[in-house]
Specification:
Blueprint (H helix, E strand, L loop, with lengths): L4 E6 L5 H9 L7 E8 L3 E2 L2 E10 L3 H16 L2 E9 L1 E3 L4 E9 L2 H17 L3 E7 L2 E4 L4 H8 L5
Helix pairs in contact: 2-3, 3-4
Length: 155
């Protein structure tokens, strides 16, 4: 099945409902839509967060996300896929990322969305700096994110 994925990296916020509507408009082959939206927290381990700043390597980030979207479409029978990731300064409560996976059946949509989020969290070429009371710090990769992404590796 050939699925066209919409992949955007942008500074502007996005509307989750509008993105789902755009993916499913006029479609009768969609029986399930699974979405995940990541939002900037205002607290990390009891420490207030003023903002996150996300940076990326233009061109490379889109290509890598596209490659993983293609892998998701090859692994599961998807009817649509949208991935939006914001960059720039993001305040607590604002959207960071959206993954929407559509399929005829829920299981494929759930798996594809989870696969893509695990990849985005652990391996996508983004750099995240957290601003707090003690200044700004670059966020290192976390072991539990790497473990979540590793479970999708084909042997």
């Amino acid at each position: 099945m050939s699925v066209t994925a919409t992949i955007r990296i942008q500074e502007a916020d996005f509307d989750v409902a509008r993105e789902i509507a755009a993916l499913t408009k006029g479609r009768t082959d969609v029986g399930a839509v699974v979405s995940f939206s990541g939002v900037c927290r205002g607290d990390e381990n009891g420490e207030p967060i003023a903002a996150l700043t996300l940076e990326h390597y233009p061109g490379m980030a889109e290509a890598e996300i596209g490659r993983h979207a293609g892998e998701a479409a090859a692994r599961w029978p998807l009817t649509g896929l949208t991935v939006i990731h914001r960059v720039g300064r993001i305040a607590p409560g604002e959207n960071i990322v959206l993954v929407v996976a559509a399929s005829q059946h829920r299981q494929a949509a759930f798996h594809a969305a989870e696969f893509l989020m695990d990849y985005l969290k652990a391996n996508a070429p983004f750099w995240k700096r957290e601003e707090g009371r003690k200044g700004a710090n670059w966020i290192e990769a976390r072991d539990h994110d790497d473990a979540a992404a590793a479970r999708w590796t084909k042997s």
